[in-house]
Structures are given as C-alpha cells and as structure tokens.
Amino acid sequence: MSAREWVGKDFYRELGVSSDASQDEIKKAYRKLARENHPDANPGDAEAERKFKAVSEAYGVLSDPEKRKEYDEARSLFGAGRGTGGGFGFPGGGGGNGGFDFGDLFTGGTRGQAGGPAGGFGGLGDILGGLFNRRGGGPTTAGPSMSQRGSDVETDVRIDFAEAVKGATVPLRLSSPATCGTCAGSGSRPGTSARTCATCGGAGLISTSQGAFAFSEPCRDCRGRGAIVESPCTECAGAGTSTRTRTLTVRIPPGVSDGQRIRLAGQGEPGRGGALSGDLYVRVHVTPHPVFGRSGNNLTITVPVDFSELVLGGTLSVPTLDGKVSVKIPAGASSGKVLRVRGKGIAKRDGTVGDLLVTLQVNVPTSLSETARSALRTYAEEMADHDPRPEITKMLKDR
After folding, report:
1. pLDDT tens digit sequence for 262-311
2. pLDDT tens digit string along 232-249?
3. Where does Zn(2+) 1 bind (predicted)?
4. Based on the number of CB atoms within 10 Å of its own CB, is 151 exposed (0-12), middle (13-18) or buried (19 or more)?
5. Residue ranges per domain, the chain?
6. Annotated binding-site residue numbers
7. Class assignment of domain 139-194+229-287?
8. What does R_g of the chain's alpha carbons equal in angstroms?
9. C-alpha distance from residue 6 to each of 78, 130, 217, 279 (Å)
C-alpha cells in the first residue's frame, strides 16, 4: 500500500468511533466488529471478510498510541490542503518552475517546489516515515520487489483457573489469510511467473500532471505491484494469499493473568512480496475459580470458621490446588485475619513463587439447640464486664 492510499483511509470510520475516542473505546469497537465479521461466523461472506480485514488494519494503527499520533498528524497535514480530483493543494503553491512529485513529498524532496525551496516538504517524510515502516505497515518499495510486512492478528482463548496457574497447551483453530500453499505467495500458477508491467515499467507508480503539479500514484494496471500475473494460481486467484483454517498449538505459560496477551511471532497475516508475516496475539481469558482467588502471585481463599475456633485457637485443614495444608489459628484471632502459607501460591516462569493467603471468616449459625443457647447465655453473663466496642461506647456517653 502506498503512502497516499494509507493517509486516504479513515480508520476511525472503519471502527465507528470518533477521532478523540479513548483506547478502551477503540478496543471495544474493534472486538465487537471483529466478532461480528469473523470468517468463522460468516462462512463464504466476502463482504464480512473484507470488513474483518479493514477493522483489523484500522485497529493495528489506532491501538498503538505512537502510530496513532503519527497517523493523526498525517491526516491533519493532508486533510487541510486536499484538492479536487484526488490531488493535494498547498498554500503559496500557485506558481514555480517544474512539477511537484507526490513521491518527493514523502521522501523529503530534493527538487525545487512551488512555494518553497528545495527540500521544503522534507519534514513530512520524517513524520510519516515511522507510520509506514512499523508493525502492520512494513517498508514498501516500488517495483516488482515491492514488499510489505503482514498485519498482526488478535484472537481470544479461554482457560480455567488451574490451567492459568500451572500453564497449559491449548489447541487454537483460526480462519485467517495465509500464504497460498500452491504458489507459495507468488500469485502465479506453478511453473509460470509474473511479467513486468508495461504501463509503469515495473515501478509500480505512474505520474500524472495537473497544471504545475505532477503526482505519483499506484499503477492501475498492476495495482502498484510492478508486475502482472498472467496465469493466476487456481487456489488464490493471483492474490498470493487465501483464507485458510489452521490449528495451532499455543503454550500458555504458568501464572498467566486474565486479559494477558501472548505473542506468536510470524503467525499473523502473510507479508507481501516476500516480506515477513505479522504476529498473532492471543488474549487469554481465565474462568474464575469457585473457591480460590488471586492477588498477583498469591492464591487467596476465604475459610469459614466457628467463633470458638477464633477464641480458643486450633488447627485448620485448608485445600490447595494440588493437595492440602494445615494452618494454625492463634487463640484470640479475629474474623478477617489473614494467615499466610509460604510457597503455596503461583509459580512464575522467572522462578518466583507466591503464597497462599487464608482469610478467616466467622460463621454465624442460623439455628441453635436449646443446650447451645443455654451455653451462650452463660457465656454472655461471664463476659458482662467486657466491652467489645469501647471507643463507640465512649462516644455515646459523651453525647
């Protein structure tokens, strides 16, 4: 894709968000549209597949704060001076000798242009350079060797709590663009090759003049590739890529958190012209456990206990993910006290291991036998001189 095509796209409109949308709004919009238009949910629907690719491309730019900033700057620069018929006008550009080449605008320009000295638009190339040479929009050069890094792809996987703690190997089934297996991405039928485009001479760009200005744009005959496939591959119809269903094995590392992304290098969309493929990002969703919780590397559990166990103390048997441990309750412990069991938490890949945090929670019975009631009354009489809330009592007396 040429720089002119990239800037002309409205990624905000593709995602249905405003240009000042937050990152969370952009993420929510992308995930909603990606689910609605995913090829698995719309088999054989070409329009849904086109929309899926478009929103993925838009998210690849807008989800990256630095890339989004450069994209916004580029749109601001060109949007303010956009002319008619696909050209661009610039203040003070009404005269001068020689034409203005659109390609010079993006490469810094070395010739004199109307309205400024030689190289007067060089700053634009600096601003846009990073945008067209990073993830999802790799370096592009004109000619038959025109190449572009493949776009990154994101998908979701759900695992249970124990798998998140201990790690797991999960099969992942994807339907996404991949390098054509028949032509190896060339687009030509095996045994044939593409010919150099006669219209652009293999440059991939053609120049047109509009008065004092000359503009370079992708060749319409070869679509900017610099070459024409005369005998298209029967599998991909000359595109070099085809939507294929594939199964990958994803290794989920131990200690992964809910919402964490795992990067699989080179498993995204294939590159163009022999360029590297993009990456696949797998977002992990962890199903909550009915008993255990998590705080960083620590496992947490809340254990109901009787009032007598808190007052008198004792030993408590507590489950872990791979067995059980004994925990000593100190006499006089209060409800809500947290007991720590060292080394029984979550082990991370770096060798660190968290703890098991046991929270004691007093359990109040809803019904009592007459014997138990009598015992409690006796206890209350014995504790009549004990005030469990002295600070509150003092405040009440002062009022």
Report:
1. 998 888 877 766 678 888 899 999 999 999 999 988 999 999 999 889 98
2. 888 787 777 777 777 888
3. 180, 183, 233, 236
4. buried
5. 139-194+229-287, 293-398
6. 180, 183, 197, 200, 219, 222, 233, 236
7. mainly beta
8. 33
9. 12, 13, 12, 20
